[in-house]
Amino acid sequence: MADTEQDKTPDRLQAFTEALEHGKHPHLRKMLNDLHPAEVALLLESLPEAQRELTWELVYPENRGDVVAELNDEVRAKLLRQMETHELVSVTSDLDVDDLVDILQDLPDRLVPKVLSSLDKQNRLRVEAALRYDEDSAGGLMSTDTVTVRADVTLDVVLRYLRMRGEIPDLTDSLFVVNRYDSYLGLLPLAELLTNDLELTVAEVMSMEAEGIPPEMPARDVASLFEQRDLVSAPVIDEHGRLLGRITIDDVVDYIREEADEMQMARAGLDPEEDMFAPIVTSTRRRAFWLGINLATAFLAAWVIGLFEETIQQVVALAVLMPVVASMGGIAGGQTLTLTI
User: Fold this and answer.
1) H helices within the chain, ranges in order?
2) CB under 8 Å to 265, separation ≥6 — which residues?
3) Is residue 306 exposed (0-12), middle (13-18) or buried (19+ Cβ within 10 Å)?
4) Alpha carbon distance 324, 333 (integer Å)
C-alpha cells in the first residue's frame, strides 16, 4: 500500500534538514518549497535561530503568507518583528481574513494601521470587525468570507451566480440565506441546490433549523456545538440577527488541538507557544517559578531527613532505601502523567 502524504512528511523534513546542514544541495530552495506550508512551519519551529533565518530566506515570497499563518505565536511574532513594512504587506496580502486577524494580533500596535491601509475597503472592514472579538470566542474563530443569497430567487439564478463568481470559499457546504438587510434567514445546502428542480425558489428548499451562533459564545462551547451536531460550518449572527460570518470545522479543529497542547504543556509548567530555541534568559524567566517550587520542596525534604539523622545513623538500611523511594515515586508519577496525557 502506497505511503500517505502524512507518512512521507518526517522523511521529507529530515532530508531537508540534512541538506541544510551540508549546505551544498543544488535543489535546496526547490526542496523546501515543495513542502506543504504546514510542513515548512514545523521545520522552522524545529530549527535554531540561525538556521531558521536562512531557511526563511529560501521560502518563495508567494508562499510566505501561508507559512506564517501555520507558525506558532512566538516564532511567528519573531519573524514578523524582523520584517520591513513592505514585507509585512506582501506576506499578508493574499491571506484569508481569519488568518490575517491572527497575524495582526501578534503585530506591534504601530504596524497594524499600515497593514490595514494596504487592504481594499471590503477586506479592511471585515478585518476590523473580526478584531473586535476575543480570539477565544465565536467572533474570534469566524471568517467573514461567506456566500449569501436571497430567499425569493430561483435555484437556477443561484447556480448562474456561482458560475459568475468562479469560486467559492473553502469548506462551503451551504450558502447563507439573508434578506435585504443582511438578516440571517437560513441555510441553502449545496446538496439541495444540486438535486432539486431549478425552477424552485431558495425559500422552498432552504433549511431554517440551523440557528446562528452569537459572536460572544466561548470557543469551547462552539467546539461542543460542532461535535454534538456534526457541523461542517455554522453562521455567526449579532444580537440583531445580522449575519457576521461563518465558523468552519477546520477552525474548530485548530482550536481543539491548541487547547489540548496547552493542557499538556501546562501540566509541566510550560507555554505551548514557547520557542524551544528561545534565548536562555527568556526560557529561565518563564520556568523559574516552577523550578523554584521544585527547589523549595527539595530543601524541605532534605530538612525533614535531617530531623531523623540520628535514626538513620543507627539503622543504615534507611539511607539505602531513601533513593529507592524517591526513584519509585518519580517513575510512578511519570507513568500517571503519561497515562493522563
Assistant:
1) 5-22, 28-33, 37-45, 49-58, 61-70, 73-82, 85-92, 97-104, 112-117, 121-131, 138-141, 155-165, 190-195, 202-205, 219-229, 249-267, 280-307, 309-314, 317-340
2) 271, 272, 274
3) exposed
4) 14
**Cell numbers 499563518 label which residue?**
69
Rounded-to-integer distance, Cα 128 and Cα 191, Å:
33
Q: What is the pLDDT of residues 75-118, one digit of tens each?
A: 887 887 788 777 877 777 777 777 777 777 777 777 777 777 77
Q: How are beta strands 233-237 and 243-248 bridged, if at all?
A: antiparallel
Q: Retrieve residue 288's grid coordinates.
A: 523559574
- The string of DSSP letters for 205-240 reads H-B---PPBPTTSBHHHHHHHHHHHT-SEEEEE-TT
The pTM score is 0.62
DSSP string computed for 78-96: HHHHHS-HHHHHHHHTT--
Measured CA to CA, the distance from residue 253 to residue 241 in angstroms comes to 26
The distance between the two most distant Cα atoms of the chain, rounded to a whole number of Å, is: 98
Nearest to 96 by CA among 221, 248, 241: 248
Rg (CA), the chain: 27
